[in-house]
């Protein structure tokens, strides 16, 4: 009986996280790679549970519209208004969650492994006055976002860099976004991203974030 219950549990978990086209991407580093600034327990919970749930929910939301599985997650969130009305909100929330987290993992790296180049320092200084001014404005956007959401550094169509924040799982690529642009850096300010280590000190979390930014990836995205 115990063996049967265990097999049933495995089947449920497999169904929850393996249905449909979209899969949970692996982290590009070990769970403890960002310590001491982001702890391994938080990374396990954030990636294995929260991100995985967005993937599972997105797959389930398309079950009645299987033809949509051929679209990428980015294509889905860029065409929300063209989706069937019954799934627009769930795709907005969960498709946004899948895209945002996948991007978030890629713009972080182990401390000291992807430092800011003089070239990137110059780019940020040209857009914000100085690197310190850029960081202060970004932290302000992160701390000032009421409730849950994200802070972003985006590249506008003009090529100018701009700092914005979005609520929930919205992002600047989403159809209907108030401000459009290409994401080059982001910070997740949902409480599950930092509460185990920083409790209610979101400002401390935002400041610690600079120690794990993959500046090599940020520069590459800016130059694309």
Class per helix and strand makeup: mainly alpha
Any idea what the radius of gyration is?
18 Å
Fourth CATH level, the homologous superfamily of the domain at 118-223: Iron/manganese superoxide dismutase, C-terminal domain
> Helix amount, in percent?
40-55%
Strand content: 5-15%
Q: Quote the distance from N terminus to C terminus.
A: 57 Å
Read across the widest sheet, the strand sequence of neighbours is 2-1-3
Output the CATH topology of the domain at 118-223.
minor pseudopilin epsh fold
What's the oligomerization state? Answer: single chain
> Based on DSSP secondary structure assignment, what is the total number of beta strands?
3
- The level 1 CATH classification of the domain at 118-223 is Alpha Beta
Which CATH-level-2 architecture of the domain at 118-223?
A: 3-Layer(bab) Sandwich
Shape: globular
Overall pLDDT: 92
Description of the molecule:
It is a single chain. The chain is mostly helical and 224 residues long. The protein has a domain at 118-223: minor pseudopilin epsh fold. The protein is built from 9 helices and 3 strands. It has a 3-stranded antiparallel β-sheet, sandwiched between helices. The chain starts with a helix and ends with a helix.
Provide key terms for this protein.
49% helix; 3 strands; 224 residues; 9 helices; three-stranded antiparallel beta sheet; minor pseudopilin epsh fold
């Amino acid at each position: 009986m115990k063996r049967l219950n265990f097999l049933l549990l495995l089947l449920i978990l497999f169904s929850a996280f393996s249905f449909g086209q979209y899969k949970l991407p692996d982290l590009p580093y070990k769970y403890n790679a960002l310590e001491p600034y982001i702890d391994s327990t938080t990374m396990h919970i954030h990636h294995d549970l929260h991100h995985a749930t967005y993937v599972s929910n997105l797959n389930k939301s398309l079950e009645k519209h299987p033809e949509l599985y051929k679209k990428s997650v980015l294509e889905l969130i860029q065409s929300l208004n063209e989706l069937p009305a019954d799934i627009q909100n769930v795709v907005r929330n969960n498709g946004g969650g899948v895209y945002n987290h996948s991007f978030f993992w890629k713009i972080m790296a182990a401390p000291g492994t992807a430092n800011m180049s003089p070239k990137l320092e110059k780019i940020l200084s040209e857009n914000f006055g100085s690197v310190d001014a850029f960081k202060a404005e970004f932290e302000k956007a992160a701390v000032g976002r009421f409730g849950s959401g994200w802070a972003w550094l985006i590249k506008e169509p003009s090529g100018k860099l701009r700092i914005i924040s979005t609520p929930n799982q919205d992002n600047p690529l989403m159809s209907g976004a108030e401000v459009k642009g290409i994401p080059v850096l982001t910070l997740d300010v949902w409480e599950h991203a930092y509460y185990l280590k920083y409790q209610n000190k979101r400002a401390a979390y935002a400041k610690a974030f600079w120690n794990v930014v993959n500046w090599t990836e940020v520069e590459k995205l800016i130059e694309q």
